[in-house]
Amino acid sequence: MTNKLSSSEQYLWDYIQENLADIPNLSIVKLSDDANVSTATIVRTTKKMGYSGYTDFRQQLLARNKNNSQYQNLEKVDHDIKQAIFKNKYEVDNTLQMLNVGSIEDAVQKIRESKDIYIFARGFSEFIAQEMLVKLQLLGKNCVMSSDPNIIVTMSRRIKREALVIIITLNGETKELVAGAKNAFSNGVSTITITTNEKSPIAEYSEMVLLGYKSQTSYFPDYEVRSRLPLQVISRILLDSYVIRTKKSSGV
């Protein structure tokens, strides 16, 4: 992103990402009507995202789709199913774009240096935390994981400075996780937070924040069961990078 998007521009860009399969067939006027924004906002937004304008954005999108044979089979898929498929693709694509290589390197170094590692997560994020726990233990790290709110708060008060806390949270607003991060921060313990909300309360108490992209679309609007795919992608990249760096340093 070349320039920071305003709230209306960010809304439009999120709308475009959620409906990207339709964009090649939409004129700027039709997109303006569908997204309820002005054509000027569309032009301004696409320019900020590195294109010369909406026409350039559409043309590049068309060219990419035409040359990308791996998605040709989607032409026969129901429109709504296609949107669901692309929703997941864009979450991954945007998460990869947002990842900072330097932050991954720093996080890997923290894992290497830490004698004890504590992983905290709640809800659906627990599945990712459990996978990280098993992999880190297989890699020889002394690692424990908790999803119990009382244990998280109590344990975080007792963690020693030499340890590392990894928190996995979609919105970064779960009160027990925020309390755990705050307790660790007060004790001088390093905390890595994997989240999709850079402005979350937990970020204030995190030494490092690995940020992913969360889609605004949910197929379960009545329940808080949004996709943790961005968190899963980040956790896998982090652990794969740790293995790569560990093997190189040991000469394997």
TrEMBL record:
CDD domains: SIS_RpiR. InterPro entries: Homeodomain-like_sf (IPR009057), HTH_RpiR (IPR000281), RpiR-like (IPR047640), RpiR-like_SIS (IPR035472), SIS_dom (IPR001347), SIS_dom_sf (IPR046348), WH-like_DNA-bd_sf (IPR036388). Keywords: DNA-binding, Transcription, Transcription regulation. Residues 107-249 form the SIS domain. It comes from the Bacteria. The keyword Phosphoprotein does not apply. PROSITE patterns: HTH_RPIR (PS51071), SIS (PS51464). Residues 1-68 form the HTH rpiR-type domain. Pfam families: HTH_6, SIS. This is MurR/RpiR family transcriptional regulator. It comes from Companilactobacillus huachuanensis.
